[in-house]
Amino acid sequence: MQARKKEVRDTMGHERRKTAESEVIDENLRRVYEDMLEDKVPDRFLDLIAQLRSQDGDSGSGENA
Which helix (H) or strand (E) holds 9? Predict the structure, then answer.
C-alpha cells in the first residue's frame, strides 16, 4: 500500500512531497513543543537563579545580568 502524499513547501520555498505518516509526526512534535512552552520553570531552578544573582551582586563587579 502506497502512502498518500501531499505537496508542501519547505521553509526555503521548495516543493516537496509529504506522506501522511510524516504529517502525523510533524503534528505530534508541534504539540509536544507547544506543551513545553506552557510549562512553568521549576522552583528549584528559580532558587538557583536567585542564588547566582545574589552571588553576582555580592561580587561588586558593577555589571548587571
Answer: strand 5-9
